[in-house]
Amino acid sequence: MSLAYLGLGSNLGDRRGNLRQAVELLAQVPGVVVRRRSSLYENPPVGYEAQPDFLNAVVEIETSLSPRALLEALQAIENRLGRERTIRWGPRTMDLDLLLFEGVRLDEEGLTLPHPRLCERAFVLVPLAELAPDWPLPDGRTAGQAAEEVKADADLRLQSQGSEW
Ligand code: A4P
Ligand code: MG
Predict the structure, then answer these.
(1) For residue 126, which ligand has an atom nearest its CA?
(2) Which residues participate in catalysis according to the annotation?
(3) What is the DSSP letter of 136?
(4) N or C: which end of the chain has fewer CB within 10 A?
(5) What is the mean pLDDT of residues 68-97?
(6) Which among 95, 104, 111 is the best mutation to test ligand 1's pocket, defined by most ligand atoms within 8 Å of the CB?
(7) 39-58 pLDDT, tens per residue?
(8) Which phi and psi angles does 61 have, rounded to 5°?
(9) Closest ligand to 108 CA?
(10) How far apart are CA 45 and CA 94, in angstroms?
(11) Region for 133 from its dihedrals, namely left if φ exceeds 0, alpha if ψ lies in -120 to 50, beta otherwise
(12) How many C-beta atoms surround the C-beta of residue 90 within 10 A?
């Protein structure tokens, strides 16, 4: 079994309900055990800004799947939750990103690990640091150090502390 961290985001419809449902569907994937979830944060969109605010969280899983098979399972859940791909970085009912997969670095068509935009995004780093503060990032910092550095400039509003959401 390998540890992996997933980034969840929603900015359309019942955002909290979408995140909850995504975790429930994840727990039903054969070969995936959901271990822990971060607090839930609301924050303005990064990238394409003319869209509603996001709710974001990070989930820790253990899995016997390969990174590629896990990505396919995540995409199937996005589709189940009504994700329509319109504009890149645009609004979505559910975005499920594979952030980190224990012991794996790769850069292939359709799958880069660690996630290429992980080190710069407060909405990923802050919840990740709750679960895995000592995890080493590709740029040499730990998740906890990186989170501290981006926190001050980020408009991250705690919506639900701990894993009760
Ligand atoms: N892909 C490659 N590596 C990975 C990986 N490690 N995990 C490929 C997931 N996907 C990976 O993703 C595009 C392609 O990336 C996929 O085909 C996959 O094979 P997508 O989910 O189809 O499209 P996207 O999400 O619009 O693009 P992308 O590049 O994944 O965007 P991001 O980086 O996920 O950003 N602002 C706030 N506040 N909160 C957010 O959650 N999210 C985004 C999306 C932008 N701004 C945001 C948020
Ligand atoms: Mg994505």
Answers:
(1) 1
(2) 83, 92, 95, 97
(3) B
(4) N
(5) 86
(6) 95
(7) 999 999 998 888 899 999 99
(8) -125, 165
(9) 1
(10) 14
(11) alpha
(12) 15
